[in-house]
Design a protein that fits this description.
By secondary structure, the chain is mainly beta. The chain has one domain: Sandwich (Immunoglobulin-like), CATH 2.60.40.10. It has one helix at about 5-10, and strands at about 10-25, 30-35, 40, 45-50, 55-60, 70-75, 90-95, 110-115, 120, 125-130, 135-145.
């Protein structure tokens, strides 16, 4: 049986997906269109990714609120070698405790990262690693292949 107190004391990934499009407007919801992308076909390789966005939401436990928390997203190949020299995105955030909030309430960070135009050098799988406080919370694969063009012969 899972102890709810233990679960509430951990970072938890709520959303970590690739989508055709995602945005966070002022109402602070994540609007996702065409989510759960796991493969993309490119006309030519080397080439660039088409319309694609990474959407992330992570639950922050009560005891980690009001402190600086570091995060980063790495982009690695199948051999876990970096596909870009630096993290795709990195930074620090602090989640406050709004008036009236209590331990166990859902407090979270969320962000979206546009990936349209991201350079791809070869076919294969790209792995997005979500790391918070030096802890890898999730790994998301994206299979990239060359588009097959049908040829009609007469």
């Amino acid at each position: 049986m899972v102890n709810q107190a233990d679960v509430n004391d951990q970072l938890q990934v709520r959303i970590f997906t690739l989508a055709d499009y995602a945005v966070i407007p002022p109402d602070n919801k994540i609007y996702i269109s065409g989510g759960a992308v796991d493969q993309m076909h490119l006309q030519q390789i080397p080439g660039a990714l088409g319309s694609l966005t990474l959407a992330v939401r992570v639950r922050i436990p009560w005891q980690m609120t009001t402190q600086q928390i570091s995060f980063r997203v790495l982009v690695l190949d199948a051999d876990r070698q970096a596909l870009v020299p630096d993290p795709l995105i990195q930074g620090e955030f602090e989640v406050g405790r709004p008036a009236g909030s209590r331990p166990g309430d859902e407090l979270a960070i969320q962000f979206v990262v546009p990936l349209t135009g991201f350079p791809v050098q070869q076919e294969g799988t790209i792995y997005f690693h979500l790391i918070i406080e030096d802890q890898t919370l999730s790994i998301l694969p994206l299979r990239v292949r060359r588009a097959v063009v049908a040829q009609i012969t007469r």
